Amino acid sequence: MDLSYTPEEEEFRARLREWLAKVLPGLPPKPDPEDWPGRRAYDLGWQRTLYDAGYADVHWGASPTTRLIFLEETEKAGAPYVGANFVGLLHAGPTIATEGTEEQRARWLAPILRGDEVWCQGFSEPDAGSDLAALRTRAWRDGDHYVVSGSKIWTSHAEVADWCELLVRTDPAAPRHRGITWLAMPMDAPGVTVRPLRTLAGSAEFAEVFLDEVRVPVANRVGAENDGWRVTMVTLSFERGTAFVGEVVACRRVLGDLARVAHRNGAWDDPELRRRLGRLNAEFRALWRLTQWNVSEAEGRGVPGVGGSVFKLRYSHARQELYDAAAAVLGPDALDLDRPWVLDRLSSLSYTIAAGTSQIQRNIVAERILGLPKGR
Amino acid sequence: MRFRLTGDQEALRAGMRELLGRRFDGAALRAAAGAPGRLDRGLWRELGAAGFFALRLPEADGGVGLGLPEAVLVFEEAGRALLPGPLAATHLAAADVPGAATGETVVARVDGGLVEWLAEADEVTGDASGAVPVRSVDPLTPLHRVPGPVPGPAPRPVPGPADPVAVLLTAAEQLGTATRACELAVQHARTRVQFGQPIGAFQAVKHLCAEMLVRAETARAAVYAAAVTSAPADIAAARLLADEAAVRGTRDCLQVHGGMGFTWESEVHLHLKRAWVRAQRAGSNAEGEEMLAAELLG
Questions:
Q1: Which residues of B touch A68 (CB under 8 A)?
Q2: Domain range holding B236?
């Protein structure tokens, strides 16, 4: 067991740090959260900056440890988040890289890396959330096109995306996992309607996407027809492992800030609150170690281990505990949306739901890791 | 970075698991529970010969010359097997008390207001004068209570903060218990049939088991990392998580076992009771939380 980094990894870290210190002061001001075109331009601009400096494919080409260092250092330096590049870099891109043809890789991968194109995800539907295989958006063949009708939900960046990685049902008669196909749909195709979805935090972070006889070339299909479920599982495994590195680093910083605010405003004198913050310190230290453990496992085995669900269960709960503790420190100020952490507290409520609810994650842990029988 | 067990560490863990499986199996566990207060001296010497107590002593002094990560692995196995005896106390005394390293001498240790295994010990670390026996909740851990600090001409010293190594080894034992509790619960959930199916097919049971694993694996990352860094904050964090994983894990294990879990015959209660005993050892959760809170202010 070794927690130290190799000389090459340390050199990567040092070079990255130096580069970040040089480049971050020159970035344009962060756009208003409601300004979608501004956000798109900002996020793509950052990806272009990474590309020019040789960091663009850190999510794909680099070792898990290098990726961990990259995410840790960019978070610590306050660099922009992956933002609108998320689906391209972490979902659609890896899928195309693994399952796409030579032509498809040439068409789509470079624009993702260069920060030219934005992707969004069309997986979930109003009646297919945790039970994704229940999706009903239909696609019929019409010559060299598919004609797609249905609706998708929880789609981030749909307003500004160029492409949508879309799951459609191509064979309603087949067993449900075997009638699904993966398509790359251009978002400017006729018949695509995007309606922003306001979350409980007040902002429109997601959208609903309505599809009315949208024509998608058959050439945009990745993998075989009706093999989309397997193709998608390749995508989903990329979400585990290093997915929360930056967030754990950020949570530890928030916790330190929280302790200092508590110390100033008198909340620190309450031993119960102090001990609560102390326990959160233990919690996030452990989550950082668990991240390092999972990354080492991924590095050793070549694939992200089963630790992803274990991590997500613990982390999503811990994040909510952190912002509940923040509310305890803030007192009445916790009701003021203009105070720091108040919006974060609201956002944290999605963590035990998004990307597999905690209940589904527990089923996964129990069935796939512990080997308990399937059944309800 | 390679935060995984090395081949040597895997072998050490497997060797200890093999020894304990052979010398302290389920039948031996039940026999020990039926004869409280007696320590198997033959097994103790075998542990000594296997290097359990001398693990961290330099090879020049007859030790094995390994470090805290290896110690944590063998203590985890001891916890998993529910091995009785003052393991940490004797391990910690290996350099100072003749015979402790080889398992010839059993060493007890005054810890807070309690001493485990005082009557059976050959030597005691700390001042055990005036100790009185307690009817111990754990049939596998005899306890004495030591009077608190009293003013007077020869005041008993107020105990300082717990030895970090004792804290970490206790956490490692708790991790072993948390792991074992999860295994026992899963075994039972797979085989116990109600309503025509294994109870492990029910989500309510499944989710209890999943949470046991999540707590154990989070604690594992914290305990192993603390063994690598030896940093006080890492050790305190490891202890808090391992205590939680062991105490809540054994409780949930009992719940999964239903009525059978409430019987003396089932071994589940022995794991729970030992987890309670260890949670009292080497400093309290409150001290750990206060220390980690202060650490946030830097």
A1: 1
A2: 164-296
How confident is the model at residue A244, as a pLDDT? Answer: 87
Could you give the CA distance from residue B199 to residue B263 in angstroms, rounded to a whole number? Answer: 19
- Residue B166: which residues within 8 A CB-CB, separation 6 or more? B88, B92, B109, B111, B281, B282
CB B161 within 8 A of CB B290: no
Interface subset of B 47-106, CB within 8 angstroms of A: 69
Q: What is the pLDDT of residues B272-286, one digit of tens each?
A: 999 999 999 988 899
Q: Which residue in A has a C-alpha nearest to residue B214's C-alpha?
A: A310
Complex prediction ipTM: 0.94
Q: Is A33 helix (H, G, I), strand (E, B) or coil?
A: coil
Chain A positions touching B295 (Cβ under 8 A) are 278, 281
Using the predicted structure, report yes or no on whether residue A240 has a pLDDT greater than 60. no
Are B272 and B178 in the same domain? yes
The yes-or-no answer on residue A165 being catalytic is no
User: A279 and B228: CB-CB below 8 Å?
Assistant: no
Q: Is B228's CB within 8 Å of A3's CB?
A: yes
The C-alpha of A335 sits at a distance from chain B's nearest C-alpha, in angstroms, of 25
pLDDT tens, B169-187?
999 999 999 999 999 999 9
Which domains are assigned to chain A?
A: 7-114 (1.10.540.10), 119-226 (2.40.110.10), 240-369 (1.20.140.10)
Closest to A117 in 3D by CA, of A184, A192, A53, A203: A184
Interval A50-102: pLDDT, tens: 999 999 878 787 888 999 999 999 999 999 999 999 999 988 998 999 899 99
How distant is the Cα of B39 from the closest Cα of chain A, in angstroms? 33
Average pLDDT of the segment spanning A179-189:
98
Which CATH number is B129's domain given?
1.10.540.10
**Contact predicate B124/B198, CB 8 Å:** no
Cα distances from A40 to residues A32, A116, A154, B184, in angstroms, run 11, 10, 18, 52
CA distance B75 to B72: 5
Using alpha carbons, select from B220, B294, B259 the residue that is nearest to residue B69. B220
List pLDDT tens digits, range B186-218: 999 999 999 999 999 999 999 999 999 999 999
Which conformational region is residue A149 in: left (phi greater than 0), alpha (psi within -120 to 50 degrees), or beta?
Answer: beta
Task: Report if residue B158 sits inside a domain.
Answer: no
- Residue that is written with structure tokens 């981030």 in the block: A156
Tens-place pLDDT, residues A255-299: 999 999 999 999 999 999 999 999 999 999 999 999 999 988 888
Tell if the CB–CB gap between B1 and A281 is shorter than 8 Å: no
Instruction: From the candidates A239, A297, A299, A321, give the one annotated as an active-site residue.
Output: A239
The residue whose two tokens read 């390679």 is: B2
